[in-house]
Amino acid sequence: MKLALSFLLASSALAAAVDFVRDVRPIFQQHCYSCHGEKKQKSGLRLDIKSEAFKGGDKHAPDIISGKSKDSPLIHFITTDDEDELMPPKGKLSTNDIATLTTWINEGAPWPDGIDLAKLENRLDHWSFKPLQVSSSAQSIDQFIDAKLAEKHLHRSAPADPVSLIRRITFDLTGLPPTPEETTAFEKEFIQDRASSIQHLVDRLLQSQRYGEHWAQHWLDVVRYADTHGFEVNTERPNAWPYRDYVIRSFNKDTPYDRFIKEQIVGDAMGQDAATGFLVTASVLLPGQIGKDDASKRLARQDSIDEIVVNIGQTFLGLSIGCARCHDHKFDPITSKDYYAMQAFVAGVEYADRDLHTPEAEAARAEEKKLKARLAEIDKELARFVPLAKSGTERPMINARENADRFPPVKTKRVRFTIKATTNLEPCIDELEVFNTAGENVALATTGTQRKSSGDIGVAERHELRFLNDGRYGNSRSWLSNKIGQGWVELEFRQEQTIERVVWGRDREGKFTDRLATDYQIEACDATGTWHIVADASDRQKFDPKNQTKKTKPTLNGLTAEETKRAKPLIQEKAAAESKITQAQNAQKAFAGTFRTPDDIHLLNRGDPEQPKESVTPAVLSSLGSLKLPKESAEQQRRRALADWIASQQNPLTARVMVNRIWQGHFGTGLVQTASDFGHMGMKPTHPELLDYLAAEFIRSGWSVKHMHRLIVLSETYGQSSQIAEDNQTMRQSDTEKSSASAVSLSPHLIVSLSTSASTTDSEARYLWRFPSRRLEAESIRDSMLAVSGRLNLKMHGRGFNLFDQRGGLSGFDPIETFTPENERRMIYAHKVRREPETVFGAFDCPDAGQSTARRIESTTPIQALNLFNSRFTILQSTAFADRVKKEAGPDLAHQITHAYRLALSRAPTPEELADTLPLVRDHGLPALCRALFNSNEFLFIP
């Protein structure tokens, strides 16, 4: 009665039309804005702005359906009896408020324009989405840096000394230390002409093949390169490495960056098949790991395409496009429709190996053909050296592919092969071969040999008795007995032969393994018509169905001394040929994706493949372009269009993102600290004008990455000292006078005051009042230890060497601790197991390829010191380092110590250091000093 009366009173009060400002907005303000207002939008619903309110939330949009309160989710949530759904969550609205909102919606939900108290952010009004702005009067890196420093009342530091400079530049460009000879030559040239010496050094290093190896690692971090598939099973990707080699070669050749982008997206149309390995670098579920139901397959496919879109977005555009998979991006102007339209560009890409068509791959195919021909000859020769039947030596197990029975030579005109038992049903023989002492197959029908059997099952052109000895292999041309588990075949030669070997199998191609004879005998008929058993299954290893398809490995067991002498080199040659064939085959394929008719892409509700909405066609992000393709566009055409749009000079993100990555590679942190997020949630650039100046110069140079290196490394900003405030108190006046012409000449005490202020104002040197020193990356530490010890193998490219005792799998990766020239190559050539950090150097923030690493965070942990001091690798390299020093410096301990310092630190020891280390070397040996040098900050940090 009371409830009815309340609604009656409410209805009377609302007899006049509901006014949004007077009646509705106060309810929203009091009860809804805390969760659905300007600062927070739970479930994607915002109620303080008209356009957003009528758009609705993520799961149930629209929430307000004009004229239909019963169908409006908003009314459902404020009236439901379900406590988990009721809104607001801390108390139901009053009856009057519910009645007001219900009436308002039924009246058409009138919401006048221009009355909202909040203003919707224009997400396009963001610095990175705007065209490049190059209007500053500054025309060099140093001028931009100095202008910003002046704003902060800071100033650049004095120039770095020549030893620090050569170490810094050499490490930055190649990831390796300079040799003592290179350091000495640079110091001499530096004294004569500082600018020219640095220019020559940079030019030389950029021409070095070591440059591409080092800078490729930065790129591989971003794209998540690994040699395994990832996820729980984490099996090997044996042909992933051609993409890694492609990246190394591209940096060394200075492939223009716009072309570099296009090759990685549509390299199959540009003669760079391995380049599209970029599209499939991420983890992926293999067919056996996906549920057999269609829903699981659809979800796995969505996940695999998502990884491609995410990779493209963060790598080239610096955007987190993947956030729009389930709903419109919360911060950036990327809608869910944009996301699925981007999917449509790559909807025909499959994670798989593809044949390479490079000159190297074609040469490998020719080599494989040649090796296989020789292998066939070897097999033919080795077939004569299988163990004799009934010789007392256990012979290999029967297998489905091929079995050889050798026996002492016997004269006969007829041979019978009798099957006593099989693995299943009627026995089947692919081809029966009989060889005489001259090595000729006398069983062939073409030689006039006749055949008969105990009975046949005839299947025209597939199972016929005439196929028993037609010289052609395969189940499609074989003999099939008409009795389960038994049967016999007999061959009669045109004339008597001296035979010594019979070869037979179920299916020489290995596709069929059932109906295999597991018990048999071979008989020869003598001139009197008597049959003699020459071989049977009694002396073979016990049959194991798991191994029945394996080919029998040649063995010397059971052979005479003369036969062993002849067979041994053939077995060795066979093993070498098989290894070379494997290498040749690996050089012909790359895990670079295959391409097919694109999937029909739909906008998915909440990213759920089981809730498809309207179909979408390929289109770029609507906030950054208008490119759209028709649905019938061919697969390659789609990727080409996407690549052209990304690599366009008009794209505001592409050049900015890459020059920022290059800057980061030299200073440790980019002008934009979030190198793969240039969106609203990323950091703003410290020097926006400089970033755009560099991006414009990048494009103007023809997208030359090496040009950007020169521009940065030759700047005075890069060449300044890394010394921080308190460490510069004793700086000489002459040092300050050598600073740039644009710098104010300061006395030492003023420099101390300035530096102290700089340390307080900008402790991380983000504004570059000094060069920000940083620790070497994990790969450079390992490579430098090998270089200094004289053990570094500079072999380039090819299949990766092993860091662990297995190349993929669930767990249990034991490190390789026996070092050979192969695993003393640069670390970029290591077989990278996803999510399994390298045992020693993985602790130095080496990415595990589980996620993209736009910037390596530099941590300091006890395990780093323990690994670097106690690992077997360090101990072995310290010994090798000491051996090298003794060989090159002679027996004098002072000379040895001095040479060790020059090799490791590019300088001689100070008198104090020499005095301190002499007793150490005398008492504990030179390896102890070498080990200490490897663990010193001076060795581990870029100065």
TrEMBL record:
Molecular-function GO term, any one: electron transfer activity
Gene3D superfamilies attached to this UniProt entry: Cytochrome c-like domain, Galactose-binding domain-like
Residues spanning the signal sequence: 1-15
Keyword Phosphoprotein among record annotations: no
Stretch list, region Disordered: 542-567
Domain DUF1553: 638-917
A Pfam entry, by short name: PSCyt2
Span of domain Cytochrome C Planctomycete-type: 32-91
Keyword terms, alphabetized: Signal
Domain DUF1549 positions: 141-350
Protein name listed in UniProt: F5/8 type C domain-containing protein
